[in-house]
Amino acid sequence: MIKDRDDRLYVSPFWKLAVLLVMIVGFGLLSLVTVKTYAGAPPIPARVQDLQGRTLFTRADIEHGQDVFFKYALMEHGTLWGHGAYLGPDYTAEDLHRLAEIGRDTLAQASYGRPFSALPLGRALEIGELLKLQLRQNRYQPDTGVLTFTAAEEASHRIQAGEWRNYFNGSTPAPGLPRNYIQDDGELQRLNDYFAWATWATVALRPGTPNSYTLNWPYEPLVGNLPTASAYLWSALSLISLLGGLGLILFIFGKFEYLGWGGTADSGGGGRLASWILTPSQRALGLYFAVVILLFLMQATLGGAIAHYRIEPGGFYGFALARILPYNLARTWHLQLAIFWIATSWVAGGLFLAPLVGGAEPRGQRAGVLALLVALAVVVFGSLGGEALGINNKLGQYWFWFGHQGGEYLDLGRFWQMLLTAGLVFWLFLMFRALRPAMRRNSGQGELPGLFLYAAVAIPLFYLPAMFYGPHTNFAIIDNWRFWIIHLWVEGFFELFATVLVALMFVQLGLVTIKSATRLVYLDAILYLFGGLVGTGHHWYFSGQGTLNMGLAACFSALEVVPLTLLTLDAWDFIRLQERTAEGCEQPLAAKQNWAIKFLIAVGVWNFIGAGIFGFLLNLPIVSYFEIGTTLTPNHGHAAMFGVFGMLALAVVFFCLRASKSDLNWARSEKFIRTGFWGVNIGLALMVLLDLFPAGVLQLWDSITNGYWHARRLSFLLSGTFHILEWMRIVADMTFLLVGVVPLFLAVMRLVLAREVKRP
Fold first, then answer.
1. For residue 181, how far is the Cα from the chain centroid?
2. Which residues have CB under 8 Å from 170's CB, separation 6+?
3. What's the DSSP call for residue 205?
4. 719: which of 114, 272, 299, 584 is 20 to 30 A away, CA to CA?
5. For residue 86, what is the DSSP state?
6. pLDDT surpasses 90 at 360
7. Which residues contact 66 (CB under 8 A, 6 or more apart)?
């Protein structure tokens, strides 16, 4: 308990109560959706039989097929129920379209003794309607666990076994994969069983409803898969939620003009940073930033490689790149390295600010910081190596623990996940030791040290759902927990920690008062979590959940745009903060940290564009129905993931390095920072303008016009205007890498390795 507190440092207790209320309501609704996911996930039958009662495959076969799907990282090659990577097809959409084609021929031969294409129009329409009726009838018997396939489904299962075998082990390699990628016939047969089950769930009606388990996704008119009424209804109602939320928040910001980074008229009074002498642990953090920029360089280089696979799937300018770096491994590393370098930057930023906030450094902190760096290196490079071994089938039955776990963004094996969690707990311990003095009475820091620690606690705590499933868990349940990490952990609590981090940076610079920073942390927590917690469900529209999730997620995810819209005000506030001066001083308080603040300005701009505009476009159920898994998804992902989290990580890097280095050493590297700043921003803008957004719109149009399966086929990706736009992206990628990443790499390495030289 804090005694004799200074009320000038504290905000009203209603802020804290509001955050708690938002979290209770949000997690209550999110938990309800998760419970219903367990109850209503598409059932995995004990046995699948044909009309004569002969067993086609069993539950064990389906589970083994899911093992194959995950072990060989096929989710980092194509998609299942719309989630995954974008070079390969959507396996369920492709399987469903072939089921329609094979099914029509099977019924036509049985009824008229000729292929479907040879039938007159009237009989063709009759066969088409008969196929829809047969496929949409749910023949699963819950009491026995037996699923009966029609003759059309049995024929499709038999024929597609050969087609998938040829795709993964034929004379022509699958795009971006090495020749004879999956060689075991038994594994290929089980993979076909798994695809057959996943496809059945997309078309068979959920008992008691007029829609399939995936709410009629993917769009496939041949089998009667059309958008549901709920997709149209909740898209419209979500727009009402958005307008209402925007109106309310603009009214609040208009009435209470002290809200926002620039809302307070007085500065914080100079802060502690100007007179602070670096501690041993803070000096050691330069090694972290060297690792951060190295991982960033590796990640950006891999990004160029996987982008090139979209224009030349068979190689890299004639070189068979897939033999040593297949697309699914390159994409795995690209995503994992993005998480690693961004998270490492924020971890280091927390360790840098903690002694500043606490006022002193605990004994042995430097040794702990170096030990944590070693642990992070083991996790990073151990998991990357394990993923390479796993997809090449070198780890046997231990693939799930030490190899490639198979879920997009959660690719690292379970052992590496546990090690990462242990590392985050140790980081939390280091943070607590440094912050503890400031959390005692009369600390002069108000509530900020406690908020900093609580935000840090959320990082390891909310990573735990990554371990709530196993390799044989129903895919709908796996996808549920996977997005607890992708959306809730990364976009929710990591972003909340970043907000506290930025608030403390500004307090230590003397740009804002402690009370203003504390109020802003609470405000951001309310705004982000109010829409973000329940809004997680917009990823689950078509992953086996029902209409309850669609209704809740559509309305709440629309509200996620509200705080993102306000970030345009943040960008302007950051510009004004650059010019703020202390009383009696002509030089701006942030003069030495101008590049850190410029990266924060970029965060505000890209958050509005990437997460706000592009993110909201995908949140509408009716748009998501046709769009999910198309190029509009990485369009949002690049602009939001790097534009927001990446820029913020770079702001932390250069804030800490500027505070650590002399003016002379900084001046020697500043030209590289300037070039790199504009290079990454212009390069990212060109990615969006030249390729990702226009190509995504073209693919969306093709999905609506010709069917989702058609828009995802390689024949579409390698033809017409879409392919031209993919080639044009080379300009963007080269700008981003050569003009942006490389100069930033040189700047950080020069600063980290330079000997301290001060002007006499």
1. 27
2. none
3. B
4. 299
5. S
6. no
7. 194, 471, 472, 475
Cite the beta strand spans of 549-645 per DSSP E.
none
Mean pLDDT of the region 114-137: 94
Verdict on whether the full-model pTM lies above 0.70:
yes
Alpha-helical runs (H) found in 392-440: 399-402, 414-439
Residues 141 and 249 in one domain: no
Among 197, 226, 255, identify where a domain stops.
Answer: 226
- Beta-carbon contacts of 261 under 8 Å, excluding residues fewer than 6 positions away, are 506, 512, 516, 520, 570, 573, 574, 577
Asked if the peptide bond before residue 280 counts as cis, ω within 30 degrees of 0, the response is no
323-326: long-range contacts at Cβ-Cβ below 8 A with a sequence spacing of 24 or more?
A: 323/178, 323/179, 326/176, 326/177, 326/178, 326/181, 326/391
Distance CA(400)–CA(228), nearest Å, equals 37
The CA distances from residue 31 to 209, 469, 484, 534, 556, in Å, are 23, 16, 11, 9, 15
Token readout for 379 is 């996790």
The dihedral sign for the CA sequence 619, 409, 352, 415: positive
Q: What is the CATH number of the domain that holds 450?
A: 1.20.210.10
CA–CA gap between residue 451 and residue 457 (Å, rounded):
10
Q: Looking at the structure, do residues 52 and 91 belong to the same domain, yes or no?
A: yes
Residues 212 and 287 occupy one common structural domain: no
Total domains in the chain come to: 2
CA–CA distance, 564 with 340 (Å, rounded to integer): 24
Question: 548: exposed, middle or buried (C-beta count within 10 Å: 0-12, 13-18, 19+)?
Answer: middle
- Does residue 388 share a domain with residue 241? yes
Cα Rg of the chain, angstroms: 27
682 with 562, same domain: the answer is yes
Which structure tokens are listed for 166? 């040829």
Q: Which two tokens stand for residue 296?
A: 């960033």
Structural tokens at position 351: 């360790």
Q: What is the H or E stretch that residue 148 is in?
A: strand 146-148
- Which is more confident, 367 or 249? 367
- Report whether the peptide linkage leading into residue 227 is cis, meaning its omega lies within 30 degrees of zero: no
319 secondary structure, DSSP code: B
Residue with token string 């939320």: 245
Residue ranges of E strands in 539-644: none
Residue range of the domain that includes 158: 42-226
Amino acid code (one letter) for 48? V
Kindly state whether residues 572 and 431 are assigned to the same domain: yes
Q: Is pLDDT of 239 > 50? A: yes
Query: Are 596 and 699 part of one and the same domain?
Result: yes
Contacts of 126 (CB under 8 A, 6+ apart): none
Cβ-based burial of 760 (10 A; exposed 0-12, middle 13-18, buried ≥19): exposed
Average pLDDT over residues 702-730: 95
Exposure string (b/e) for 146-164, b if CB count within 10 Å is 16 or more? bbbbbbbbbbbbebbbeeb
Residue 291 within a domain:
yes
**CA 230 centroid distance within chain:** 26
DSSP 741: I
Is residue 315 included in any domain, yes or no? yes
φ, ψ for residue 378, nearest 5 deg: -60, -45
Amino acid at 331: R
- Tens digit of pLDDT for each residue in 279-321? 999 999 999 999 999 999 999 999 999 999 999 988 788 788 8
Question: Among 6, 115, 175, which Cα is nearest to 717's?
Answer: 175
Check whether residue 257 and residue 397 sit in a common domain: yes
Q: Dihedral (C-alpha) 308, 310, 311, 314: value to the nearest 10 degrees?
A: 80
Distance in angstroms (rounded) separating the CA atoms of residues 449 and 457: 12
Instruction: For residue 37, tell me if it sits in a domain.
Output: no
The more confident residue out of 331 and 495 is 331
Listed residues 226, 259, 293: the one ending a domain: 226
> Phi/psi at 58 (nearest 5 deg)?
-125, 175
Q: Which residues contact 114 (CB under 8 A, 6 or more apart)?
A: 108
By the 8 A CB rule, do 132 and 104 touch? no
